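I'm stuck. Please check this protein.
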Amino acid sequence: MAALTIATGTGNWFSALALGVTLLKCLLIPTYHSTDFEVHRNWLAITHSLPISQWYYEATSEWTLDYPPFFAWFEYILSHVAKYFDQEMLNVHNLNYSSSRTLLFQRFSVIFMDVLFVYAVRECCKCIDGKKVGKELTEKPKFILSVLLLWNFGLLIVDHIHFQYNGFLFGLMLLSIARLFQKRHMEGAFLFAVLLHFKHIYLYVAPAYGVYLLRSYCFTANKPDGSIRWKSFSFVRVISLGLVVFLVSALSLGPFLALNQLPQVFSRLFPFKRGLCHAYWAPNFWALYNALDKVLSVIGLKLKFLDPNNIPKASMTSGLVQQFQHTVLPSVTPLATLICTLIAILPSIFCLWFKPQGPRGFLRCLTLCALSSFMFGWHVHEKAILLAILPMRIGKNKDV
């Protein structure tokens, strides 16, 4: 509190918040880490010691490379710093390798990359109307937003205990949102295109970006009632957006297209054989569906409606990442989850098109797309809820 008081007097409260959370991250360095720690160590080894033609084929470890090419190149760059800490971590055959230097490097790499997240939060704060401020620091909208984003404990747990690079990726996302609020649409589109080639989970919110940019950037004017003025459509802007997406995609996927490896890359990015639910269920619709199927199967067995020999002993409750068949209810396919997700996001997409309401409308649509995908998507991770929570922090601020 003393540091915050000093920061208030000098106007540097944002720096104090950023510094404070960074120190907290440093304190979390020796804490528990999940298997994702080994996942990223293995990716460092793959990208450092193997040619690009083998990146998406290497399978010595069960933790194969399954992120888009930009993230693979990101790991490649990190690996050239990692070799100065511990060369052994870059050996593909050193499965489950760990050392104090490896721990320090990987933890500090996440902390360092969070600089982008801090910058993105600062840019989001600039989108808030500075005229409406409270007397106390804790009443200021910019301060509240900064605390909610920088000190988001879900993100802290996932990145700095569990171990991932979500802060860096969400930094790209928040920065793209800030650019759209600042009416720098081409920059926002470019940043989101780059983000998709770092981690494809952000496809969940791609419909919101696509519809908003088409409606509010490619159509340059509205009628007095807010409806589309069709004659205002700009082919130049559409071509410009298309060119941005094409160039980013070409830079990312081009080398693998030249190697005739795109099918292999996509098979790694979209591994549908992993099953409907993750080993640790996301609390979504399919978790309830699975639970109902389990209850019905137990009742069916007790009432002797089901043959116990036809029921698998380990199914969706086994804690394994795998495909399974439901016992009583119809089994769910990837196509079924896609249809459910599209139906769920349609209302928000229609509202964004017919009643745009500017960047705030876009942010609402983005949040609803993320929530719909979380509720009905295929193999959803529980941490995917952050995709809705973080943008929601901005949208809830009435001064945006």
Remarks:
- The radius of gyration is 23 Å.
- Residues 100-126 form the longest helix (27 residues).
